[in-house]
Amino acid sequence: MVHRLLIALLVVAALAGLVVYSQIRPTDDRVSGIVEADEIRVGSRVGGRVQSVHVEEGDRVEPGELLIELEPFDLTEQLQQAKAELAARQAEYNRYQAGLRTEEIGQAQAHYEQLQARLDRLVAGPRKQEIDVGKARLEVAVSQRQYAAASLARVREARASNAATPQDLDQAITALQAAEGEVAASEEELSLLEAGTREEEIREARAGAQEAQLAAQLAAEGYRNEDIAAAQAARDAAAATVAALEARVEELSIRAPVAGVIESLEIRKGDLASAGAPVLAILADGRLWVRAYVPDNRLDVKTGQQVAITVDSFPDQRFAAEITYISRQAEFTPSNVQTPQERVKQVFRIKATLTEGLDKLRPGMPTDVWLTPQDAPHE
To answer: Do 68 and 50 meet the contact criterion of CB atoms below 8 Å apart?
Structure first.
């Protein structure tokens, strides 16, 4: 009986010791996480049929490296047309900017002076010498008419005595008629000279001279600022069209924006790539972090806090990291982090950015985040 009592006391003492030990034993100051990296999803803003694919999944690429080429369709022709339009608009702008040539200005000035001289001549009217010439021509015409009349009288007398033929008489009559017409024309010409220039001709000449004068002034002053601004605006619009088309042509070549590894490739030669849709993903080099979850009783962590990272692949090494993000809102523990019994607990997501081990660690590795770095195992 005593023996059984001793055994029972030993069992109770062991259980009590286990309870006490479970209360006082130190807990691991760590949480589980996964190494992650920036995933850059790459595509084209224009889209089109895939002409060639230069990479495969798992390939390492450098910034600017050509990944995929799309067929240009009619973009090349549109760009050539836009460049031709830009050249025409540039030439027009240059012409307005330079203004008229010296020869064109001189030609306009000469035309004005020519019309002004004609106006001056019409305003001044016939000169005295011109009137004297008209009078002299009239006197000559009168003398010729008198001579023709005397000749006709002699021919008639001769005809009466049959000393002249009918043809002689006809010639004499015709000569007199011609002389009389010459006298009438000379009288009209002299009358016009003495009357001077008509007012209608002077007004017409004055208007022509004024128009030529304004044209010469415009030529000397060059094109208006509004015309130059309009030509410049047309040139700039054409240049913007060229730039837009060049950007679209550039989008036909999909290049790596960062250095990294091709994570996924969702398109092949001959496929149609949608505009703005990603066609491949790149895991970028240079930045790794651990996504982990801490329970609410360990929310004493702070951004900027130094932590240690350990992984199964390097059990004897630890890597420095810094907490750079703490979620402001609690969530239920993800199923792939804790056991089903603990999923009801609320946790806060954190991000620990690695400052060491970038050349050894890889995205997807399971890790332990030691919230107290000195507790992490050393090499």
So the answer is: yes
> In the structure encoding, which two tokens stand for residue 94, read together?
């240059």
- C-alpha distances out from residue 158 to 144, 147, 161, 169, 179, Å: 21, 17, 5, 9, 21
Instruction: Give the start-to-end residue ranges of the domains of the chain.
Output: 27-58+266-375, 80-99+224-249
**Buried b vs exposed e over 122-131: b needs ≥16 C-beta within 10 Å?**
beeebeeeee
Say which residues have a Cβ less than 8 Å from residue 105's Cβ, sequence separation at least 6: 216, 219, 220
Pairing verdict, β 66-70 and 253-255: antiparallel
Euclidean distance between CA atoms 13 and 11, whole angstroms:
5
User: Mean pLDDT, consecutive 10-residue segments, the chain of 379 residues?
Assistant: 57 51 53 91 92 93 94 92 94 82 73 76 67 75 81 78 77 82 78 66 77 72 79 93 94 93 91 92 89 85 92 90 89 55 69 89 90 69
Radius of gyration, alpha carbons of the chain: 55
| Residue 53 Cα distances to 258, 265, 270, 282, angstroms | 18, 10, 10, 15
User: What's the first-to-final CA gap in the chain, in angstroms?
Assistant: 55
Task: Tell the CATH topology of 27-58+266-375.
Answer: Elongation Factor Tu (Ef-tu); domain 3 (2.40.30)
Quick one: tokens of 221?
């002053």
247-261 burial code (b ≥16 CB/10 A, e <16): ebbebbebbbebebb
What local confidence, expressed as pLDDT, does residue 329 receive? 82
